[in-house]
Structure formats: C-alpha cells, structure tokens
Write a structure and sequence with these properties.
By secondary structure, the protein is an alpha+beta fold. The protein is about 50% helix and about 15% strand. The protein has helices spanning about 1-10, 20-25, 30-35, 60-70, 75-85, 130-140, 145-160, 160-170, 175-195, and strands spanning about 15-20, 40-45, 50, 75, 95-100, 110, 120-125, 125-130. It has a 3-stranded antiparallel sheet with strand order 1-3-2, with helices on both faces. The protein is elongated, with a radius of gyration of 22 Å.
C-alpha cells in the first residue's frame, strides 16, 4: 500500500519528501500535483515538499536541501557539524556539496564538487560529510574565533590521523592554515604540561 510506505518515509524524513521519492513509493504524478495544489504538501524547493502536520524546523530544512541538490549531494560545512552534534545550532544558510551544478536557493549554499567516497557518510538517515572533512570545512566557514576551538576539540576526539588524511584528499589553503594553527597550539599545550610536571631543581636527589 503506497500510503503506508509514504507514512513511514515521511516520519523518517521529518515530513520532507521529493517528487521522485513519492512516485517511487507508489503515487502517480497527478496525485503528487493534487497534494501540492490542495496544500497538503507545501513546496520547500523545486520538487521537494513538506507534508501537512510537520513543522518547517532545522531538520526539515537540512533534509530538503540535500534532496533538492540531487543524487550524490551531502550536507557539509557548519551545517554538517551541527548535524553531527558538534554545534548547538544550525546555521541560517545550509551548505550542501553536490556533484551537479546548482544555483543557490534561499537558505542553501551549493558547492559543486565530486567528493571521494571516503569523505561521505550517512548519519541519522542523511548523507553528510565525514567528521574529518566536516570539521575542516566548518572551521574555515565559521572563522577563527569560532572555528579554531571547534577544530581543536574535534582533533582531540577523532584524532589527527583522520583529519590529516581528509586534508590530503581535500587540500585547501584554509585547511592548511587551520591545521598549522592547531599544531602550534598542540605544541604549546604539551610544553606547558611538561613544564608543570617537570621536577624542580630543589626536588632532585
């Protein structure tokens, strides 16, 4: 029964659905048009809708942006950092990386680029950049005062190896500068730690 499949799909996607998904789930094109015409489905982007009974919150915005951007698209940058739980709030403009060129939409910034498979993942049912690429792009997007602490915390949690491997696959001047700053901060932290635990001359026997 198409209705049962649609209900499950809508529940998983915060009420967001694309025209193609709806037709694959069993609706005819005429049925989709009727749902839109009678305002039971509200357009969020071309061929992407929000079903009645669901609110247009941040999750709906994120899912709609990725669905609109098409096959191979992923949530990226600060939006991906929020989706991964690294930021408390979603940015007003959501970044999406997609292999096909798209004109920006209100509230959505599109970067046209083919990502390596190692830089893509799925988290909570949504295609998104992996943590390593997420923190590099989010830190660059947010800028120094907010970006550097995010990168520093992520490096402690997920390790340098993953982030450095990601940077080698996606080299940018911004990423290089951020990693260099993080490495300098790490060296300073280690130096301060060593100074604190080093025994004083008077304590030596």
């Amino acid at each position: 029964m198409p209705g049962m499949g649609l209900d499950l799909l809508l529940a998983r996607q915060a009420g967001v659905i694309s025209r193609r998904q709806a037709i694959r789930a069993g609706l005819s094109a005429a049925s989709v048009d009727r749902l839109v015409r009678t305002r039971r489905w509200r357009p969020l982007h071309p061929r992407v809708y929000l079903a009645s009974g669901y609110g247009p919150g941040d999750e709906a915005r994120a899912r709609a942006a990725v669905l609109w951007a098409g096959d191979g698209a992923v949530l990226s940058g600060a939006a991906a950092a929020w989706w991964h739980g690294l930021l408390a709030e979603a940015p007003r403009t959501l970044a999406v990386t997609a292999p096909a060129r798209r004109r920006p939409r209100p509230g959505v910034a599109v970067r046209c680029r083919q990502l390596d498979g190692a830089d893509r993942t799925e988290h909570r049912g949504l295609p998104v950049t992996v943590l390593g690429l997420t923190v590099l792009e989010a830190a660059a997007e947010l800028g120094g005062p907010a970006g550097e602490p995010l990168l520093h915390r992520a490096l402690r949690e997920i390790g340098w190896a993953d982030v450095l491997a990601t940077h080698r696959r996606n080299p940018t001047l911004a990423g290089k500068a951020l990693l260099a700053a993080a490495a300098g901060r790490r060296r300073r932290d280690l130096h301060h730690l060593e100074a604190r635990i080093r025994p004083s001359t008077g304590d030596r026997r």
